[in-house]
């Protein structure tokens, strides 16, 4: 056991169901009593936790089929976190001071069964990199829509947590041209200048399908779609024969104030899919249990070789965590968003 046992912890709770997109007032920071770990339990002091758009879906009314429990008024938010073991109960192999990864973020201290923690290890040079969502991008580009040498790859939502890694991964796997999309000229410039994108379409700067065609005049071989909506429509209109489309997100519907967070209709030309022999598949992590470990090894190697960059925005302190979710939804940040404690 640790020499000093914290008596309380602060955590972020949902205080009311959002009407449309979540706002700061829908969340509150609560102080709760904290006990020591019992047999088989571990107490972790969280260092960083992930802010992710899926929370909007969990707070909504369309959660059927979602592989995570819904959030209702009074519930504490949760999500990927990296923290340091403070104390352990009987029968636990973990030791105080050890870094672990778990899913009880959005709180200063997490008391949970030891089997729900995984040692962070030393595979990644920066512990925060364990909060990367790059596993989905890597899995999509190696399992669902394999990149071939010289392919033209389009990544929608390229300045987001998954998209910015997807573009870099595509290049490392042999893509000849990488095209992205984003919502601002400033983000587009960063994608080109810092992350190797050849062209970036700025949403709202013109007809999306025409702009995408100009950015990829020879058509698209691979699509990693994190957005859906008109961007998926445009991608289908610009595919080449034998193209592979991997769906890894649907932010156009998920972050729409007019929807409930669990649907994202998109109009696609099914005739073009047929005559071009296009495959369209959705990526589910549960279908590819071997991907996370493979990704972690490859990600760590690429990071150490300075062949990939992991951009993340840090929001400091549990008190700012409620605003961090609203800022993510409003697109104020670039890359992954984490709260540092």
From TrEMBL:
Protein name: NADP-dependent oxidoreductase
Organism: Streptodolium elevatio
Gene3D superfamilies listed in its UniProt record: Medium-chain alcohol dehydrogenases, catalytic domain, NAD(P)-binding Rossmann-like Domain
Domain named Enoyl reductase (ER): residues: 20-339
Keyword annotations: Oxidoreductase
UniProt key word Oxidoreductase: yes
